[in-house]
Write a structure and sequence with these properties.
The structure holds two protein chains of two kinds. In chain A, the strands form two sheets. In chain A, strands 2, 4, 5, 6, 9, 10 and 11 form a seven-stranded mixed sheet that branches. A four-stranded antiparallel sheet of chain A has the order 1-3-8-7, with no helix packed on it. Chain A is an all-beta fold. Chain A has strands at 5-7, 10-13, 19-24, 31-38, 42-50, 53-56, 65-71, 74-79, 88-95, 105-106, 110-114. Chain A is built from no helices and eleven strands. Chain B is mostly beta strands. In chain B, the strands form two sheets. In chain B, strands 2, 4, 5, 9, 10 and 11 form a six-stranded mixed sheet that branches. In chain B, β4 and β5 form a beta hairpin. Chain B is globular. Classes of the chains: A mainly beta, B mainly beta.
């Protein structure tokens, strides 16, 4: 199994530009999570999908952030327009079950730098 | 507001020594407590997890101790090895899917 796949691994962009991060979850997993990791705030859950449906987007910082999951094998996180304070590592994670305690498998992350 | 408080922020231990990381929580509804290990440039990976119906769980050199009455749990790394150098996060579930993570502890094992 290839694990959770994220692309790109690194993204450098200028303020005001649109950024799209991509995620392919592990096959057979029906839950998908987007996290953001910063030194100041640690690991924060941005949005949670179950069976391709957004269940909890309360962690999305503002309307500039949007996420989609058009099918079970692909999700995107878009930031438009990007700002320097969006610089962080963004992780996608997937999980097989929807019940408590199911292990979340994290991807390698996308390091975003907004200049 | 972090619902799980983790300490220390960093620690250095000699090879063969014991690393101890502590976490505390307030919400008594938490009932799943995982520890994640993260190497530089990688995503966090589940290391070991415990539920509050047991006081200790051991997997190899890694042990979780859980004190329900004190609302504290800790990770012990026995016989620490240079390959254990990483950042460790404790966490607790706030519901069926949401994990609240501690701030992380960077462990450095000196050879």
């Amino acid at each position: 199994d290839a694990g959770v796949i994220q692309s790109p691994r690194h993204e450098v962009t200028e303020m005001g530009q649109e950024v799209t991060l991509r995620c392919k979850p592990i096959s057979g997993h029906n839950s998908l999570f987007w996290y953001r990791q910063t030194m100041m705030r640690g690991l924060e859950l941005l949005i949670y999908f179950n069976n391709n449906v957004p269940i909890d987007d309360s962690g999305m910082p503002e309307d500039r952030f949007s996420a989609k999951m058009p099918n079970a094998s692909f999700s995107t996180l878009k930031i438009q327009p990007s700002e320097p304070r969006d610089s962080a590592v963004y992780f996608c994670a997937s999980r097989r079950t929807s019940g408590k305690g199911g292990e979340q498998f994290f991807g390698p992350g996308t390091r975003l730098t907004v200049l | 507001q972090q619902q799980v408080k983790q300490s220390p922020q960093s620690l250095i231990v000699q090879k063969g020594g014991i690393s101890i990381i502590n976490c505390a929580y307030e919400n008594t509804a938490f009932d799943y407590f995982p520890w994640y290990q993260q190497f530089p440039g990688k995503g966090p990976a589940l290391l070991i997890a415990i539920r509050p119906d047991v006081s200790e769980k051991k997997e190899g050199r890694f042990t979780i101790s859980f004190n329900k009455s004190a609302k504290q749990f800790s990770l012990h790394i026995m016989d620490s090895q240079p390959g254990d150098s990483a950042t460790y996060f404790c966490a607790a579930n706030t519901n069926d899917y949401k994990l609240s993570f501690g701030a992380g502890t960077t462990v450095t094992v000196r050879a």
